[in-house]
Amino acid sequence: MEQNIVKLAQEFCLFVKHAQAIVKLLDEGATIPFIARYRKELTGSADEVLITQVRDRIAQLRELEKRKETVLKSIQEQGKLTEELRAKIEGAETISELEDIYLPYKPKRRTRATIAREKGLEPLATKIFSQEDFDLLEACLAYISEEKGVKTIEDALEGARDIVAELISENAEARRRIRHLFEKEGFFIAKLIEGKEEEGQKYRDYFDWSEPIRSAPSHRVLAMRRAEKEGIISLECAPDQERAFEVLENLFLKRRDAIGEQMKKAIRDAYRRFLKPSIETEIRILTKQKADADAIRVFADNLRQLLLAPPLGERNVLAIDPGYRTGCKVVCLNAQGKLLHHDVIYPNEPQRKVVESAKIIKSLCETYQIEAIAIGNGTASRETEAFVRHIDLPKHIQIVVVNESGASVYSASEVAREEFPNEDVTVRGAVSIGRRLMDPLAELVKIDPRAIGVGQYQHDVDPIALKQSLDDVVVSCVNAVGVEVNTASKQLLTYVSGIGETLAQNIVKYRDKHGPFRSREELKKVPRLGEKAFEQAAGFLRIRNAENPLDMSAVHPESYHIVEKMAKDLQCTVKDLMTKEELRELIKLENYITETVGLPTLQDILKELAKPGRDPRKQFEVFRFAEGIEKISDLKVGMKLPGIVMNITDFGAFVDIGVHQAGLLHISQISDKKINHPSEVLKVQQKVEVTVIDVDLKRNRISLSLKGEKTQEAKQLQARNKDKKKENLSIDEKLRLLQEKFRR
Known about the structure:
alpha/beta, Arc Repressor Mutant, subunit A, Nucleotidyltransferase, domain 5, Tex N-terminal region-like, five-stranded mixed beta sheet, 15 strands, five-stranded mixed beta barrel
């Protein structure tokens, strides 16, 4: 175990004591957000990303140790374990290296080499393999035996070559070199399967395709594998065969005579029959794992941005799930997201009851004091938005088009049935749209992240690894924002550090029975919420209007005594510290450092006192699509349109421009400068102004460009920098600029 800790410290540039502390905390059940936020002194202020990497790596190292034990036991039982072999096994750095060492000792099925050994041909094979000087024909004659089935010299040579081929295939150095060759010089080679051209049109790019294994991007690897799985293409990954023969011959071939010729045949047989299939399988697994990791990383990044999208906040909301024939489902929610009323209007085709529908909307807005209207971005969205905007509504009512991806999944889920047992799926879907505007995070945690629509080939990647990564993101986001314990849903509470499904249910039941929690300390009365769970969860749970003002902050209860001492030293109350900046400026943090509490924790406390329970999410801004552009046929090349980034992939981003079909912003069209990944410039839910560069009505495809345009964030940054430069100008320079402006 100590060896693994040292390895972790080296790999992640950590002090050994910090690596040891992270692993110990994880083993004790501490969550990643808790360790990152409240155990900075122990971990050297490691952040969530680093702690997650340590968690995943220690799991790999432990799996390797476990496999080493199995291998050692197997070889020992065979009576073949030497000290040299033990040292090799214990020194193996990877599973591949370990398996290469183990391969000659691994129990095998009956092979051609096994049969040859049964015929007594192993001594001949050993001579050929060592390529010592001997008379090959004379040696072969000694093994001819009707009884053993070796009837001719060629039978003897063939059997000996089978044994040699197996020895070559089990040689660790040979495997290492061929593996390296695959990785550095190998190609993916895709070919169309005869008769599948029409069926596989969406994969036509891969009908006759090859590219280096080392540089193939994850999205193409996954696409080729999917096409192969669907029987559209055949897929091979391998280097040039002659090059592979050359690598092996350089390693094994020592002579060019008849003995060397037998060795050469065995080398080629070893590659074709053993090494190529085996290493190709390995490379397929490795490239799939890498492609999975890339796709999962993109998905996780997109999900984080979506979950941390700016919330409108606690407002009375009217939400509309648009539709044509079946009408638009309308719901009214109070500021806490409670369903107050639902109705149906028919402002669109074919009914077109515009006047009647407008009266209903105006009446509902007045009755429920509506402050914002949320409209789903699905079918009939733009028509419904245009209808609502033409109603004479009070100017303070904000009208917002909301991404409704996953709302239908929620509406049919057990969670939705539990929340609204007496309502149908259309009402539940509209509620989800409205709540998503108020607080995207609180609502989206109720939906399986894979259904939200911000992934890349998410159905092709390892489901276990995907779930782990997405769960990590949801947990991270929920705990970064914090949760108001008296209003949070069971689903939201589930993701709070240390809580989980059972305790979340118990908290809700206790709250329903005893009323709102009045303090964090009261959480200890919740059944099964013990000291450990309280320690993990308390700092992330907020209690608004609690008697102790620290209960609404991210200051952990274990640190309350520090704040109380600060207040006592300044002869004021804790509340005074939280409301008066001049008092906080008098605090000398070094006076409160102890063996367990250092500057990182004290600095966090001070920040929290300044802005207790602060929400890290950005301020909500209303976005509006271009008027009159509602369907793909309305688009013209050269149009500049506002849009929202919906999804980011390795090859580009998809942007909603309000025409029911997202446009592709290819990576080559994102920036005037070369970028390695779209995420360097774009974020999910980012507002952009794009130019239409191509419209393919037949294939329903839109191509967009951001070149020459600046994102809203970039424009704001440029403006700030400009202002900053002005501030730094001397009086003479400012006067000169004013004179130039006057002359112009």
